Each structure stands twice: as C-alpha cells, then as structure tokens.
C-alpha cells in the first residue's frame, strides 16, 4: 500500500544566504500510512512545527519533495496548495488560533465560508460537531470567553468541519492541564476511529506514551534521530 | 452563495472592530461632507444665477463715467431703439437699499421696470402710490405680511411707509428674496432720482445671435454706455463661484491631505491582529482571492456608508441649513442679502466624481495591504 504522506530529503532554510541563515529542517525523509497516528517528538526548536506546516501545505520546502496522496505539493501553485489544504487537512494549533470576538459556531464554520455549502447545511454540520464535543450549549459564546480546554475543542471542531483526511495537531496539550490533556487524547482517539490519519507534534510524554499512538518519530536540530521516519 | 457568505463575514468583521471603523467612518464622512458641501453650494449658486438670469434681459445698458456706474438718461432709449435689430427698449428704475435695522441689503425695483414673473406673486403687485410687494426674505427679516406697513428710510433720511400688497413666493428665492417692488414715482422719489434718469436700460434683441453686434453698435452710438449681455453676467457669476470654491477647496486641502495620510497609513500596514486573522483564514483553507474579496467588501461597506453619510450631511447642510459654515466664503458679499434657502439641485455627474475619488482610494488602501499579508505563508502571517 502506498503511504498517504511521503517526504523525501526535505530541507527548509530561513533567511537563505544571509548572515542569519537558519536551517530549520535538514534532509527529512519519512512516510505516514493512511489511518496511522504518528507523533513527532522532540525539544523546542527541533523542527517539529516546521515539518508539520510543510506537510500541511502552509509553507514550501527549500528543497526536497512532499507527496500527499498522489500530489507533489511542493511543486503546486499557491492556489492549488490552498485547495489541497482546504480539502485534505484539518489543523489544531498550539495557540488554538481562533478568531477573537467571534462566536463558537462562527469560528467552527469559518473554513466553509469560501465554499459553496449553504448556510443551513453549514450550521447543521457545525452543531453536530459541537454536540460530539459536548459544546452544544456554548455555540453563541465569544471564543475569548471560553476556557483553554473549551477553546481547544472549538479548534478541533473547526479542524473537522471539512471532513479532512488528515488531522494535524501542533502541541495540542501545551496549554492544557493533565485532565484536559487526557480528555483531548480521548477526542483524538474518536477521530482516529473515524479513519482519519493524525500527525501530532509534541514533547508531552502523556501524548507520545498514549496507546492511541501507532508510531513516534524523534527529532532534534532539524533532523530525524536515527535518520529515517519510514 | 459563496460571495454572500464572504460579505456576511466582512460585515461581522467590521462590527467586531466597531470603534476603529466608526472613527474612520466619521473622519471619512466629514471629509466627504465638506468636499460635497463646497461643490453642492457652488453648483446650486450657479444654478440660481442661471435661473435668475433666464428672465433677465438679453442686454442691459448702463452709463459709466470715469469708471463709475451712473444713472442713464432715459433719452438713451430712443437712440438705442433706432439701432436696427433692436426689438424693444425699457428704462429700468431700481437701486440697492441697505437696511440698518436688519443689516441686510434689499433691491428696490419699480413695477414698471418689468419685475419677475407675475405668477410668482402672492397677493398682487402695487398699482398705486404707497404700495409695495416684497420678497420672502424681506417679509421674514422685517416680520411683515400682506396688509402690514413696510417702513424704509429714503434719500432724505425720512421714514417712508409702504403698504405691503403682495409677497413673492418664488421657486428660486434668490430671484425675489431681497426684492421690494414699488411704483416708479415712489421709487424715483425714494432714491431722489431726477425725472429724466433711469438706473439702466434693458434691450430686447430680435435675433439673440446678434446680441454682441448690437452691443458694439450701442457702444459706438453712446460712448459713455456700457452694454452687458446676459451670457457675460452668467460667465462672471460662474467664474466668481468657481474661484471661491477653488479657494475653499485649497483651504480644505489640509484636511484632505490629513485624510490621505490616514489612508496611506492604512495602506502601508495592517495591525498584527488583522495579519494574524488573515493567516488563520489562509491556514484553514481560504484562498488569496477569498481574502481579497473579504477586504474588498469591508472597504466598500465603510467607504459607501461614509459616502452616503457625507453626501446626506452635505445636502442637509447646504439645502436645509443654508450652508451656514461655507456661506461667508462662497457667497461673499451676498451674505448681506436676507438669508435664503437654495434650490436643491445636485449634479449627478459631480456625485459620481466625488464617489469615484473617495471610494476607490479607500478600497485600494484596504485591499492592497491585505493582499501583501494574503500572499505570505499562513504560518508567517499567523505570527502577526
């Protein structure tokens, strides 16, 4: 079976050919199968977030290939890259990255605004996700009035609204206590059962030691420890 | 559907940043209101002048001695009437009267000197000594109506009482607002005019294209005369009002520059919060074009609302409040007329130009910086 995600010799260099040049990723090669739950672990600055953002089509590698499904996304134009991001990925960010002063429901529906989905269908899908995450009573609240755990659930609901194939979670437990972290892992388990492929960047042992995780890839200084993430 | 949803989100974004947007909206609307007021007022005054002159004689002959306007001998009329192409000649008796009581200027005109259209009169025109018909402005400033007495001080410093037999209610108040129409004998006695002298002579020409030729002939026959054609007066009015509105706009340009700086400031950078939001939207699947559309709707909503508010404020200021702020600058000496309400006339082309000159730069200054953020990687943009 072909892997769902494949990176080949991916490098990412910031401020190339300048005195402050920084090599964030160096020769990363890995693959992730469909339905797999993979953790990228490592200390801060090891390149986990950069790698996730390149796989999630939020940036381009300086060199190397990133293949998602059948497409080499590193070669796609900005427009097609956005389409791939829109149709394939759901993101759960470390800082939640919700739009302030907007209601819970509106935040969840944001990915659907530029799509031809009608308002009624959008709301139906949003409410179903809120019910799944136990947030149905808070749909009209402004997100900045919610607790960290609640904001995390809104971010998860927003990541799932487009029914993505791959869910990317960057340090999802960074701002949560251990109980909320355990709740989150429970939700990720549910998502995994839905057949989604999950990529998590974390340095939280609670996450990478969880039975939900199929595989852990260790990173340090922009490289995969042991040389391969195959 | 997609556009409608983005528009809905744009409006909700504006409401979210309501204080900032309200401040921009108010400054923007004020700028448009001042600009539009100057243009509305100038256009309305020019229209008033055209209306006024539409009924004026094609040619007026004055007498000038040493560059000073002097009374013209009635006998000039016969010489002018003898010029081929002249259809009619009418000596006119009128004069300006400064009313110290109301600090206003009135125009006194003899009823025999072809006063404005009779249909405009409420009551009747004077048909005997001691009677007068007055304009709405005079009626208002002196608080007199039909049946009351109007007391004016004549050339001998004596109070003269005239019974008001009619009040003008003209479509164009500029035309009759400051007017006091009385009998010719009353008027000549009032100003102390000698019996054989008139204020000027109006000349009707058979072929309007011949007006300038007739004027030249009059000048040749009567060297002390100064023939003035209707189009000359109209051009002078237009020139004066254009010059004044130009002066006003020059003064106002400081405010315009301030607004341009504001727009430029907006164009050269957006807040970290806005950048972050653009980054989030990109990350969750919005295309660059979707973000530009969102910002376009935001710009259109703010600028069109400001335009409408500004135009409305200018309309109310000019046509309902008498352009109180701009009147001293644009109308000049005519402010000592009894105050009058301008005829509401708006040039649609002018409104289009104002709209284009204000909406386009603002929308551009909203879309351009967002475009810069929208073409950045979502990850970089999200960091603000």
List the strand order in the largest sheet of chain A.
6-7-8-3-9-10
Number of domains of chain B: 2
Radius of gyration of chain B: 30 Å
SSE string of chain B, helices as H and strands as E? HHEEEHEEEEEHEEHEHEEHEHHHHHH
Q: Biggest sheet of chain B, open or closed, and with what strands and sense?
A: 7 strands, mixed
What structural class is derived from the secondary structure elements of chain A?
alpha/beta
According to DSSP, the number of beta strands of chain B is: 14
Percent of residues of chain B in beta strands?
15-25%
Describe the structure.
The complex is a heterodimer of chains A (230) and B (384). Chain A has a single domain, classed as Rossmann fold, CATH 3.40.50.300. Chain A contains seven helices and ten strands. Chain A is an alpha/beta fold. The mean pLDDT of chain A is 89. Chain A is 31% helix and 25% strand. In chain A, the strands form two sheets. Chain A has a six-stranded mixed beta sheet with strand order 6-7-8-3-9-10, with helices on both faces. A four-stranded antiparallel beta sheet of chain A has the order 2-1-4-5, with helices on one face. The two termini of chain A are 13 Å apart. By secondary structure, chain B is an alpha+beta fold. Chain B has two domains: 2-52 and 236-382, no CATH class; 59-228, no CATH class. Chain B is built from 13 helices and 14 strands. In chain B, the strands form three sheets. In chain B, strands 5, 6, 7, 8, 9, 10 and 11 form a seven-stranded mixed beta sheet that branches. In chain B, strands 1, 2, 4, 13 and 14 form a five-stranded antiparallel beta sheet that branches. In chain B, a hairpin with a 5-residue loop joins β9 (149-153) and β10. In chain B, α1 (2-16) packs across α10, α2 runs antiparallel to α8 (230-268) and α2 packs antiparallel against α12 (348-374). Chain B is elongated, with a radius of gyration of 30 Å.
